[in-house]
Amino acid sequence: DNFDLYHKNKSKFYGMAAIKVGNNRTSTQVNTKIQSLRSRYENENKEET
């Protein structure tokens, strides 16, 4: 039940982010960009510690 709610909200978030980012990007493209930025950030934090 909670997973369905999480999945719905996550999809809505990426849709809203796509609208805010603009440049005719789809929510999938925004999702991919956010994931890559997040993994890059996590890797940089690992290197610092």
From TrEMBL:
Source superkingdom: Eukaryota
Ranges where the record places region Disordered: 30-49
Source organism per UniProt: Dentiscutata erythropus
Basic and acidic residues bias (residue ranges): 39-49
Protein name as annotated: 358_t:CDS:1
